DNA sequence: CTCTAAGTTGACTGGCCAGTCAGTCCAGAA
DNA sequence: TTCTGGACTGACTGGCCAGTCAACTTAGAG
């Protein structure tokens, strides 16, 4: 056998490049040649590893997801305390640093592609399920430890994740009404309201410090 | 002067067709000929009214929005009571009937297009701002009437709208974890927790409604 | 009736790009 | 050293489609 296989490495290069390009110009405008250029290779090579553009994109979406999970694995070790753990996860999803922004862009493109593609819907289902299960289990742990209010964890997870998705989208769109800072404030407010006996914002008194931030 | 102008009518036909096609196959796959066919006219006519595909899409996005507003205007008259009004609005945004689903599809396409198009970002900003202002004012009215808990209305509006966007997306994607019914349930849970003295969940005790609102 | 111009048509073109392919390169096996 | 086959290249092609355009239709003005 000839050269040692460079397949894994090359695939990774290409997928990474594909995500960058998608994030920058969108799936619609993406040309194979762009990806090749970004990956420092030729369009022929891209086709050597991925039969069709569709296959490439599907792989890129998957790669984007596993990558996101990996980048967050350490959070589970760093934070044992459920409230801290949840907060750390939510914080890590705020579209702040370039890498997270890029991942969100790719994610958004996946959503819209998936609206007309059952395969991608399945991918979304897996990913979303995983994320939802994680959040729900953290909530459950927190409740068992008496640290979170006793709402239905699945409802809480759904509501929280939905909110993050919706807010992130607006932040990514450069909304003046929903900036990164404001998103963070809203998330913190919500997280605070989840915890038992959190000081800042007695549920009944209205305009606490928490809300203000978001307001701004 | 020749024939009476049919411009307004024809434009409307085309925009409506464009929204239908976008909803069905997505912006990326949309061909001018598809729109023309759907509108019962020719591709030449589409170009007669809209110089470029981009111009057509921008107009379609705008049309989709004003249309959504119009379809909801009656809700303001039908419901004076803030909690009812808010509930009616939220209910009307659930992706249930085909028309609402179509509007959501178009909206999702706009989002992703806008990620790479400042003009569309501006459009999103206007629309999102309008919707956010409406929700916040309903919340404020409800608080003045002593019917809603005294959270910052802007935070509540942002959290609620973000949540609706994120959940709707999952419903549109045909998620098994997030069906229309489950979305409705989550929304109702959140709305309930917003109101003062709603039975279900006493505010200060762990399972309080107050916090839930935001929580969810 | 004639003239005018808005409105409409669909064949056509020019550019773009996914995917193909014939050929090159090269690491290691024999 | 030769041979093998995986890896890689980039010119090329075939199909697609936005946008153009020359020709036509029609409704009202004069």
From TrEMBL, chains A, B:
Q: Which PROSITE patterns match?
A: HTH_TETR_2 (PS50977)
Q: Name one GO molecular function term.
A: transcription cis-regulatory region binding
| Keywords, alphabetical | DNA-binding, Repressor, Transcription, Transcription regulation
Query: Looking at the UniProt feature table, which residue ranges are given for the DNA-binding region?
Result: 31-50
Q: List, for all copies, the residue spans of the domain called HTH tetR-type.
A: 8-68
SUPFAM superfamilies of this UniProt entry? Homeodomain-like, Tetracyclin repressor-like, C-terminal domain
- The yes or no answer to whether the keyword Nucleotidyltransferase is present is no
Q: What is this protein called?
A: TetR family transcriptional regulator
Its source organism is Geodermatophilus tzadiensis
């Amino acid at each position: 056998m000839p050269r040692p296989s460079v397949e894994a490495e090359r695939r990774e290069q290409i997928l990474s490049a594909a995500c960058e390009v998608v994030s920058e110009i969108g799936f619609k405008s993406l040309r194979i040649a762009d990806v090749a250029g970004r990956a420092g290779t030729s369009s022929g090579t891209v086709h050597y590893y991925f039969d069709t553009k569709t296959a490439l994109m599907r792989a890129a979406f998957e790669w984007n997801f596993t990558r996101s999970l990996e980048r967050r694995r350490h959070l589970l070790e760093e934070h044992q305390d459920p409230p801290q753990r949840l907060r750390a996860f939510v914080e890590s999803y705020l579209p702040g640093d370039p890498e997270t922004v890029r991942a969100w862009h790719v994610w958004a493109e996946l959503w819209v592609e998936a609206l007309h593609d059952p395969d991608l819907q399945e991918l979304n289902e897996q990913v979303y399920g995983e994320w939802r299960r994680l959040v729900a289990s953290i909530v459950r742990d927190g409740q068992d430890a008496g640290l979170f209010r006793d709402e239905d964890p699945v409802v809480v997870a759904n509501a929280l994740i939905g909110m993050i998705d919706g807010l992130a989208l607006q932040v990514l769109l450069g909304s003046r009404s929903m900036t990164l800072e404001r998103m963070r404030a809203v998330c913190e407010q919500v997280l605070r309201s989840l915890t038992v006996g959190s000081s800042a914002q007695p549920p009944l008194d209205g305009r606490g410090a928490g809300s203000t931030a978001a307001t701004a």
